[in-house]
Design a protein that fits this description.
This protein has about 270 residues and is an alpha/beta fold. It has a domain of about 170 residues: Rossmann fold. Helix content is about 50%, strand content about 10%. Its EC number is 2.5.1.129.
């Protein structure tokens, strides 16, 4: 009897020991489950986040830098290429150089060989005098000069006066000298190009070339036709009115000539 009791008590103790151990193990496992869940959630969140994604503070900082860079004003001056060719009307090119200089515009001058010859017959200016009016000067055959590249930023170009030979070369893209190359660059870079076409009468070939160029949005054909509503009293008045309108076509403002104020005011 005593042996039976001892066996029963030992068995109960053994069973109770297993139960206690099982309960303790399960309790410990339950304590670790939240950490595991949190780890899995962190992994999922990390995987869902795009590679290279920026934190909000970093993004705002970069956006601020981008705005600052875009709002930074340009430091270069207004820059205009002025080309003179062999057509009559050299005084127009000379006067525009004088006015642009007075306006503080940076000018880049190219004088063709025949423009230099024409200067000898039209006024008292020498080629040296004309070059002294410009900020920079280039030889007409210098294919490596600054105006030959589109990466050289300008605000426009004017060919004044523009011969029919030069106009024809510009129309066909025949850039055989620096003037035509600079004009070609101005067109392709979508910058303003003003061609002061000086010829009369005009042949169908001349008119066809002018029409083809005028149909380009950034090209202006400007025959230097005098305006008489300003009642000019001298050749200088006529020149200044024409040159002032040319400067308008370049997108610049000039007060070197009288403007139309309406019929009543003009009569007065």
């Amino acid at each position: 009897m005593m042996i039976f009791v001892v066996v029963v008590v030992s068995g109960l103790a053994w069973l109770l020991g297993i139960s206690m151990r099982t309960m303790m193990v399960n309790a410990l496992k339950s304590l670790h489950k939240p950490d595991a869940a949190m780890s899995r959630a962190a992994l999922v969140t990390s995987a869902a986040k795009p590679v290279g994604a920026l934190e909000p503070a970093t993004t705002a900082k970069n956006e601020s830098r981008s705005r600052s860079a875009s709002e930074k004003p340009t430091s270069r001056p207004v820059r205009i290429i002025v080309a003179m060719t062999g057509a009559t009307g050299a005084i127009l090119g000379i006067r525009i150089l004088e006015i642009l200089r007075d306006m503080g515009v940076e000018t880049h001058l190219i004088v063709s060989r025949w423009a230099a010859e024409t200067l000898k017959y039209e006024g008292n200016y020498s080629i040296k005098d004309v070059k002294n009016l410009a900020t920079f000067c280039y030889a007409h055959n210098d294919a490596g000069a600054l105006p030959s590249s589109g990466s050289f930023q300008t605000d426009g170009m004017i060919v004044v006066p523009c011969s029919m030979r030069t106009l024809s070369a510009i129309r066909t893209g025949f850039a055989d000298d620096l003037i035509c190359r600079a004009a070609d660059v101005t067109i392709k870079e979508r910058r303003k190009l003003v061609l002061v076409a000086r010829e009369t009468p005009l042949s169908p070939i001349h008119l066809g070339n002018m029409l083809a160029l005028a149909q380009m949005q950034n090209v202006v054909i400007f025959p230097p036709v005098p305006a008489f509503y300003t009642r000019p009293k001298s050749l200088s008045d006529i020149v200044d009115q024409s040159v002032g309108r040319m400067i308008d076509m370049l997108g610049l403002e000039s007060d070197h000539f009288p403007r139309w104020n309406g019929m009543d005011q003009s009569k007065a």
